[in-house]
Amino acid sequence: MQDRAYALFEEQQKARGIDVEAVKAKLKALKVETPSWGYADQGTRFKTFQKVGVPRNTFEKMEDAAQVHKYTGICPAVAIHIPWDKVDDYSVLKRHVSDLGITIGAINPNLFQDDDYMLGSVTNSNAAVRRKATDHLLECVEIARTVGSKDISMWFADGTNYPGQADIRKRVHWMHESLKEMYGALDSDMRMLIEYKFFEPAFYHTDLADWGMAFNMANKLGPQAQVLVDTGHHAQGTNIEHIVAYLIGEYKLGGFHFNSRKYADDDLIVGSVNPYELFLIFYQILDAIADSDAKVRQTAEGIAYMIDQSHNIEEKIPAMLRSVMNVQTQYAKALLINLDEVKDAQERQDVLGAEEAVRSAHEMDVTPLLYAVREEMGVPVEPLKAYRASGYGEKIAARGKGGASW
Ligand code: LRH
Ligand code: MN
Ligand code: MN
């Protein structure tokens, strides 16, 4: 049955001018980083729910993340957040992670959960607070060096709640001063990924509110600083794929945080609300990977795909598996876009033809393709089902309630 479905799929794609073997190779090469905080207890400002079986420390978070890699084969790295994942000796953590067959991905400094940062971290008018924040950034560079991570991923909660509360221009200047110092501490193969968000927790102004501000900051810092786009960090209706295309064109897109939202920065399961948006983002990235400009290609190929999800009502590992599979599905669909067909239609100025060439790929059922790829990768064809049957969920239930939050 599976074989027949795949044979039919292959035939159908050949007729559309798609090289299925090339598509399979790209699917096998896809890597999606998962966040340590996505395995911990999470909540909203109203309640953090305590779940049974949640990891009690960073070491256990890594064990759960390794399960996601085991069942998907595409999640070999885990992002950590400092100090949520603070440990005494990072080389011990590195060894633990490597024993699990995975690695540590992006290092995320945390400059928002300390009373000192209430009125800003690297933008605080108090020089001592700025010093403390900058020292934390430097500490994160050092941690990255110890664990062998190349990306430091930064999101700043800095902002104000009221008009007149602070000097907006001075704050940008202070942030630049701090980031410049951090930039100077990077090894030549490290990157600073600068994330932006339009509001929350600050409600009047946020110092890095949009891609333009992050882009400008990254430009001022240098080539090792790039922008990170988080799907949940935009106003309703924002054309995120346009931002993606623009930033790649400027060689400045470095990373992606996938999650799903309906209203704000909801951090829910990826692709649960608007999978088409994700597909269109991948279309822009794949189109750039086929560009004749080598720098555009390298930028697009260098994008770090990460999930940034803080689901709080559902089971942690199954929810992460669902997200990873949803990313894989939309990526697979985007790989079925016949880019030559799109270009031909563009050249003919055939508006409907071009839109059809993009959309038709999304309408394909990629299940037989994903089954075949997973089989060839030696992972279960249905990762979630296999995980549930494995008994790991029952085993970790012994951890009880009251695990790590964040
Ligand atoms: C806050 C946020 C941000 C970071 C993450 C750790 O908005 O979701 O996206 O990347 O916390
Ligand atoms: Mn994020
Ligand atoms: Mn966020």
From TrEMBL:
<keyword id="KW-0464">Manganese</keyword>
<dbReference type="GO" id="GO:0019324">
    <property type="term" value="P:L-lyxose metabolic process"/>
</dbReference>
<dbReference type="InterPro" id="IPR036237">
    <property type="entry name" value="Xyl_isomerase-like_sf"/>
</dbReference>
<dbReference type="Pfam" id="PF01261">
    <property type="entry name" value="AP_endonuc_2"/>
</dbReference>
<protein>
    <submittedName>
        <fullName>L-rhamnose isomerase</fullName>
        <ecNumber>5.3.1.14</ecNumber>
    </submittedName>
</protein>
<dbReference type="GO" id="GO:0046872">
    <property type="term" value="F:metal ion binding"/>
</dbReference>
<dbReference type="InterPro" id="IPR013457">
    <property type="entry name" value="Rhamnose_iso-rel"/>
</dbReference>
<dbReference type="GO" id="GO:0019301">
    <property type="term" value="P:rhamnose catabolic process"/>
</dbReference>
<dbReference type="GO" id="GO:0008740">
    <property type="term" value="F:L-rhamnose isomerase activity"/>
</dbReference>
<keyword id="KW-0479">Metal-binding</keyword>
<dbReference type="InterPro" id="IPR013022">
    <property type="entry name" value="Xyl_isomerase-like_TIM-brl"/>
</dbReference>
<feature type="domain" description="Xylose isomerase-like TIM barrel">
    <location>
        <begin position="88"/>
        <end position="266"/>
    </location>
</feature>
<dbReference type="InterPro" id="IPR050337">
    <property type="entry name" value="L-rhamnose_isomerase"/>
</dbReference>
<keyword id="KW-0413">Isomerase</keyword>
